């Protein structure tokens, strides 16, 4: 089979229609850039061509530069060079934007003389999400077209705008259903006249003061973000320098940021999230089952949020409770959440009504009879869950997926309580379920391939990032978290204070450390669980809970919240309590350097991640990263725990873990077999994933 040319050109009625066809998203690979250059030169040289339309096949116009080429030797022509060729043509070029025009894709369109967009098209410069800035003239052309302040906003936020917004701000000239026809008509109109290129002067930039004000606000909202800083600096050059020099400023920032390890980490995040969508070992051609209606059992903290996810995605859902009273409480909480969004201006009143209209409250499990997917979110009790799944086997319609939102319970055991274990799997949402992006899809022993495919597809429809996990205690995320929690307590006993431990993690990039988080969630929650299980693993947290210090809700926990109820201050009473517990245990406290605290918290998690990978609970190291990035606030510019481990160096982690294990006598801290092997071979988690993908 001959491969389709990524760029073709056809001349008809004096117009050359140049088409990009580089599935899946028409990224600007070397072959596409080469094809565009040749097509532009041919059209320029052909006397029969009066005007040019630049169009694309498929759903997307152009998704930008080919991200997989970053970090590899450059292949000419470069993107800036390709765009410059189009911009300098003496025949009009009109971009026919049929779908997303992102990053380099929008920059190509900006190099055209005019732009027509489909009503559904999205236009944006998402480079900051990859740790870079627009590097093919976007920072110079967009401000000169729509104004410096609005252009900086688009770049700094990285979020695309709609065709309608783009028309309003002058980024596109026309919005039309048939973009190619409209672009042809516009191109012919422009032929022969003066070409309306993006001005190279300051005509459209707007007032400098307005730009500086907008830039200051944006930089304040994005502290220590080198990409956003570079965007502001490059846009500022529009005022201070001629166009060509502005391009040079942009290029310098672009190459510096592209070669920064933070950008490599963010690229890893991009690809890891997409790879996580691929389920290994699924028979070819496995399709998803249709899901037109869902049911959620239990309208508590999680159930209400999960029902909102379905309603937000336009899927009707029945929310099921044991009593009218519980049901009303649950529905009121959902309504209240939507009302808050309306108040904040993020949801329109009619959208709220529509979403509430999709949620039907019912008492009794029988109401799950017409659902294609049932998510159980009742109390975390094995007996109760088994009873419910046992009943569901009769109630749920044949082929319905039966999912549990359990955090820790054995999904195989739950599945065994039904006569249809092939339909059973875990759908582990994170709290608050309507906000958090992560969804762990737990594949049990008997889960049917198409049931798994359905849960993954539904996860994406709910705007989640779904990741497959095998069955184990705590699945991927909570199993690793338990290692960090244990070390955090241990560090307190050895000499650190809550603020030292939390600072190590917030300095690393987490929004919150484990103790501030504990205070927020309520120290009593895990205390009650430990008491029920007779666990003595957290003496400090237990002592605080016994003293009635439950966290923010009692104004005292690991920190003192008496100032305003929300801001925690270090508390000398807590320090004294910790010192007393250390003394009772015969531990001589010592100052622990921040670097050691960080390693003590992160390396045991990485070690557990290696075990999870070694056992096949996670299919890829990148899946583990995706879990931590989307469910636990791991800082994205370090790429996630396993990518970070590679950057630290696996031999160093092995050596430190051995020291920690020897010092504490905790065998859990002994390096995992997979970690040892990779370190010994001089390999990495990234290399392991690459080998598996190949
Ligand atoms: N380069 C390379 N591959 C890309 C890509 C890109 N720019 N964009 C998407 N892909 C790949 C994905 O990895 C995925 O591959 P897979 O099927 O092998 O996993 C495939 O295309 C489909 O992607 P999605 O699953 O994301 O498809 P969706 O339909 O959900 O979304 C999209 C489409 C909105 C275009 C989304 O892919 C997207 O946001 N892409 C990235 C956009 C971006 O960041 N562009 C800026 C690039 S940097 C740049 O242009 C620099 C310039 O200024 C010089
Ligand atoms: P919750 O206690 O807030 O809500 C449970 C609800 O289930 C209650 O409203 C209860 O009335 C209802 N319920 C009990 N038996 C029922 C039955 N037979 N039929 C219908 N409804 C019934 O509990 P929460 O926090 O929402 O947890 C639910 C599940 O989600 C648990 O398995 C938990 O482990 C899991 N989970 C909890 C998270 C959290 O942060 N709270 C995070 C992720 C998972």
TrEMBL record:
It is found in: Peroxisome. GO terms for biological process: fatty acid beta-oxidation. Keywords: Fatty acid metabolism, Isomerase, Lipid degradation, Lipid metabolism, Lyase, Multifunctional enzyme, NAD, Oxidoreductase, Peroxisome. Pathway: Lipid metabolism; fatty acid beta-oxidation. GO terms for molecular function: (3S)-3-hydroxyacyl-CoA dehydrogenase (NAD+) activity; enoyl-CoA hydratase activity; isomerase activity; NAD+ binding. It comes from the Bacteria. SUPFAM superfamilies: 6-phosphogluconate dehydrogenase C-terminal domain-like (SSF48179), ClpP/crotonase (SSF52096), NAD(P)-binding Rossmann-fold domains (SSF51735). Gene3D superfamilies: 1.10.1040.50, 2-enoyl-CoA Hydratase, Chain A, domain 1, NAD(P)-binding Rossmann-like Domain. It catalyses: a (3S)-3-hydroxyacyl-CoA + NAD(+) = a 3-oxoacyl-CoA + NADH + H(+). Residues 474-561, 597-682 form the 3-hydroxyacyl-CoA dehydrogenase C-terminal domain. InterPro entries: 3-OHacyl-CoA_DH_NAD-bd, 3HC_DH_C, 6-PGluconate_DH-like_C_sf, ClpP/crotonase-like_dom_sf, Enoyl-CoA_hyd/isom_CS, Enoyl-CoA_hydra/iso, NAD(P)-bd_dom_sf. Residues 293-469 form the 3-hydroxyacyl-CoA dehydrogenase NAD binding domain. Pfam families: 3HCDH, 3HCDH_N, ECH_1. In the N-terminal section; belongs to the enoyl-CoA hydratase/isomerase family. Belongs to the enoyl-CoA hydratase/isomerase family. Monomer. This is Enoyl-CoA hydratase/isomerase family protein. It comes from Roseomonas indoligenes.
């Amino acid at each position: 089979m001959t491969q389709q040319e990524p760029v073709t050109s056809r001349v008809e009625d004096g117009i050359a229609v140049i088409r990009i066809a580089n599935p899946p998203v028409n990224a600007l690979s070397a072959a596409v850039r080469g094809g565009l250059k040749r097509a532009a030169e041919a059209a320029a040289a052909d006397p029969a061509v009066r005007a040019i339309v630049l169009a694309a096949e498929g759903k997307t116009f152009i998704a930008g530069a080919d991200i997989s080429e970053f970090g590899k030797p450059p292949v000419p022509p470069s993107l800036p060079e390709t765009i410059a060729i189009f911009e300098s043509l003496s025949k009009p070029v009109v971009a026919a934007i049929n779908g997303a025009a992102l990053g380099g894709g929008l920059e190509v369109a900006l190099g055209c003389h005019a732009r027509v967009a489909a009503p559904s098209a999205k236009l944006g410069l998402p480079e900051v999400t990859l740790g870079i800035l627009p590097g093919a003239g976007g920072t110079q052309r967009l401000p000169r077209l729509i104004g410096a302040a609005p252009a900086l906003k688009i770049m700094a936020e990285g979020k695309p705008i709609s065709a309608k917004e783009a028309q309003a701000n002058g980024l596109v000239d026309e919005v039309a259903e048939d973009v190619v026809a409209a672009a042809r008509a516009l191109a012919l109109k422009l032929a022969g006249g003066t070409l309306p290129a993006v001005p190279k002067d300051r005509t459209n930039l707007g007032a400098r003061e307005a730009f500086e004000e907008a830039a200051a606000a944006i930089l304040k909202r994005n502290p220590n973000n080198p990409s956003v800083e570079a965007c502001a600096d490059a846009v500022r050059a529009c005022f201070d320098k001629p166009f060509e020099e502005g391009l040079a400023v942009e290029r310098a920032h672009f190459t510096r940021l592209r070669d920064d390890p933070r950008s490599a980490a963010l690229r890893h995040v991009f690809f890891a999230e997409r790879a996580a969508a691929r389920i290994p070992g699924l028979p070819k051609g496995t399709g998803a089952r249709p899901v037109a209606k869902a049911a959620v059992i239990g309208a508590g903290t999680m159930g209400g949020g999960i029902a909102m996810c379905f309603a937000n995605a336009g899927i009707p859902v029945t929310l099921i409770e044991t009593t009218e009273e519980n049901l009303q409480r649950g529905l009121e909480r959902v309504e209240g959440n939507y009302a808050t969004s309306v108040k904040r201006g993020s949801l329109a009143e009619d959208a709220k009504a529509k979403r509430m209209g999709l949620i039907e409250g019912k008492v009794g499990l029988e109401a799950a009879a017409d659902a294609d997917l049932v998510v159980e979110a009742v109390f975390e009790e094995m007996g109760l869950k088994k009873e419910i799944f046992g009943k569901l086997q009769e109630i749920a319609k044949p082929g319905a997926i039966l999912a549990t939102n359990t955090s820790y319970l054995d999904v195989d055991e739950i599945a065994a309580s039904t006569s249809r274990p092939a339909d059973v799997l875990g759908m582990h949402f994170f709290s608050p379920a309507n906000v958090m992006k992560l969804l762990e899809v737990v594949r049990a022993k008997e889960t049917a391939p198409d049931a798994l495919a359905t849960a993954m597809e539904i996860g994406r429809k709910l705007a989640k990032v779904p990741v497959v996990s095998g069955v184990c205690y705590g699945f991927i995320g909570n199993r690793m978290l338990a290692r960090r929690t244990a070390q955090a307590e241990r560090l307190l006993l050895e000499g650190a204070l809550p603020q030292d431990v939390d600072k190590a993690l917030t300095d690393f990039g987490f929004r919150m450390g484990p103790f501030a988080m504990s205070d927020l969630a309520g120290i009593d929650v895990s205390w009650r669980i430990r008491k029920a299980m007779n666990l003595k693993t957290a003496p400090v947290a237990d002592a605080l809970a016994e003293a009635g210090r439950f966290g923010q809700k009692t104004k005292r926990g690991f920190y003192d919240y008496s100032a305003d109820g929300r801001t925690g201050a270090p508390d000398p009473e807590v320090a004294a309590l910790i010192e007393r517990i250390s003394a009772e245990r015969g531990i001589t406290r010592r100052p622990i350097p921040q670097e050691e605290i960080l390693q003590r918290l992160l390396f045991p998690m990485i070690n557990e991640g290696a075990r999870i990978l070694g056992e096949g609970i996670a299919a890829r190291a990148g899946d583990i990263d995706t879990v931590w990035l989307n469910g636990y606030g791991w800082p994205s510019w370090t790429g996630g725990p396993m990518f970070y481990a590679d950057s630290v160096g696996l031999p160093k982690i092995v050596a430190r873990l051995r020291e920690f294990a020897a010092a504490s006598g905790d065998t859990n801290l002994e390096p995992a077999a997979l970690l040892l092997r990779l370190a010994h071979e001089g390999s990495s988690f990234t290399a392991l994933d690459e080998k598996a993908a190949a």
